[in-house]
Structure formats: C-alpha cells, structure tokens
Amino acid sequence: MNRRNFIAHTLLSAAATSSVTTTSAMPATTPSVVTTDASTLMSESVPPKKRVLRIAHLTDIHVKPDKTAEEGMARALKSANSLNPKADFIINSGDCIMDALEKTKEETEAQWKVYKSILKAENTLPVVHAIGNHDIWGWFSKFNGLQTEKLYGKQWAIEELGLPKRYYSFERAGWKFIILDSVQLNQAGGYIAYLDVEQYAWLENELKTCAPNKHICIVSHIPILSMCSGLFYGKHEPNGDLLTKRNLMHTDFFKLKNLFKNFPNIRLCLSGHIHMQDEVKYLGITYYCNGAVCGAWWKGAFQDFPPAYAVIDYYDDGSFDRYFVNY
Fold first, then answer.
1. pTM for this structure?
2. 236-260 per-position pLDDT tens digit
3. Residue 267 in 3-state DSSP?
4. What is the pLDDT of residues 23-35, one digit of tens each?
5. Whether the bond into 306 is cis, omega within 30 of 0
6. Nearest of 46, 51, 72 to residue 61 by alpha carbon
7. Nearest CA to 273 among 96, 84, 109?
C-alpha cells in the first residue's frame, strides 16, 4: 500500500472506529461522530517519510554517428542534469549504442566513441550501467573469426562502460541496487532473456546476505515481468493470442518469482528494452518498464510512447515515486 492509500485507509478506519455519542437533542438512532482534525491524525499516525535518493533512469539511448541521435542524447543528458531537486546518479539499463550485434569492429568502435564523447560533454552525474542486447559485439555477425577477438561478446561493453563484471551490486542510502545481465546467447540463433546458472546463484546469495532492513531495487535490461512485452508487436496472433517472445521478457520469471517471494524487502524492478512504459504490481513488487530515450530509434514515438526518461525518488521507508520527462 503506498503512502497516499495508507493515509486514506487510516482516515477511513479512524472514522469507522471512533466512539459515537448521542445527545438529548437528537434521537438515539442519529449518532454524532466524534471527529479528529485530519492534519493532527496524519502527523500522529504516519511519520513523514524522507526522500533519500533521486535517480534518472535513461534506457535505450541507441546512439550512433547521426545528427538526430547525437543531439537527442545530448538533450536527454542536459535535462537529466538539470533536474530540481538534482539527481544523485543516472541508471542506464542498456542499449547505449544503436547496435553492435552484427556490426564490424570499426562501426562498433565509432558508436562507442560517440556515446562516450556525448556522455563526457553533457553529463556530470555518476552513471550506473547494465548491458543491453545491442551493446554486445559480434553475436549476429556474418564475419568469421570474431569469437577469438578479445572484445567479442559482452567484453567490449564491460570495458567501455567500466563495469566490475557483467552483473554487480552496490548500496546507497539504505537501498541495495542489484544490476543484472539478462541477455544470454541462444546457440540456435538470437538471444534469450534469463539468468545463467552462475548469475542466479550469485543473485540468490546477494538476496540472502542483504540485511532485511535494506530496501532492494533490481535493474535488468530486459523486463523480468512486463505487460508491454506482449504488446510490442502491436497485434494479436492469428488465433487471438498475444505474443511474448523469449527475448522480450525473462523466460525464468517463475523461477525468479519463487525466489523473490522469500525477500519482502525487494521493492522495485527496473527495465527498458521494450521502448514502452508500463507498471506491473505483482506479489508486493513493482515492475517498471521505463520506455526509451530514443523512442522509436530516433524516429519519433514508438506505439504512442515518445522519447523520454524516468525519474524515480526513493524514500527511507522503502516507498518510491516515478515520473516521466519527455525531454
């Protein structure tokens, strides 16, 4: 229950359980409810929560050497750096560049050069990165021999973004942030959204060893749970089904759900990838898919969702608020 609903519930409960009296001037069937000033009741019943963090969630920038993309990324960063109150840091949950999956080494290098150049010129905030599918080099390449390259796969993104490894965690102001790597190679072709065995064991340990009074926010590129994953193609299947492909939402959702339900301090999961915005509340956890900075890959809105980023305020009681900025 969020703070607003909690207050409303408290007020209604207070009214329902307040003592009732009758006066000689009124028949006994017409009770007079003893009321309490609402501001006094709220101050006594609900201690004020304190915002401890503000983050700007910029996902799916998809920058490339292109005037529209470069200027768009610059505008988004200028906007995020001008928030009032100021953001404490930026979370970029992947797809920093347009595509490295099937690009040459030279094309990929040019994209990373543009990304880092604009980031340096327009941003003064710390940036936390997750790896997106389009940040991965060579998986779909038609060129032979790339597998032997040092930067093949996720290694290039890890080095460009200065990551400690492809998944990691950190703590800030009473919150623990867990950054996942949700993109795994499908040997039969393409990629699949799930956590590999090593990463799942690491996540389980991170959750078990986290102090129960710390609130947890989990970040992945591909949504763990999302309604928009089934709406991505903008149509039904011929039989009427909605199609949620294995690269649009975590295929290990049920396994993760069964893990998460043991840890009530998991508050929030953030993602991108779908280029659409949604909110799913499921078993006490809120799942936010936060659109795309690039909208429809720098060609306007994608399915009615314009280029945007999210601002999330985190509070000391484990609650949070989300806003969108159509920069």
1. 0.85
2. 899 999 889 999 999 999 999 999 9
3. strand
4. 333 333 333 333 3
5. no
6. 72
7. 96
Residue 72 has, within 13 A of its CA and on its CB side, a CA count of 29
Most confident range, picked from 4-8, 20-24, 272-276: 272-276
Mean residue pLDDT of the chain comes to: 89
Which carries the bigger pLDDT value, residue 5 or residue 257? 257
Structure token pair of residue 120 = 């340096």
**Host H or E run for residue 320:** strand 320-325
Residue bearing tokens 């949604």: 278
Question: Domain ranges in the chain?
Answer: 3-44, 50-325
Q: What kind of fold does domain 50-325 have according to CATH? A: Purple Acid Phosphatase; chain A, domain 2 (3.60.21)
Token pair belonging to 76: 């988004």
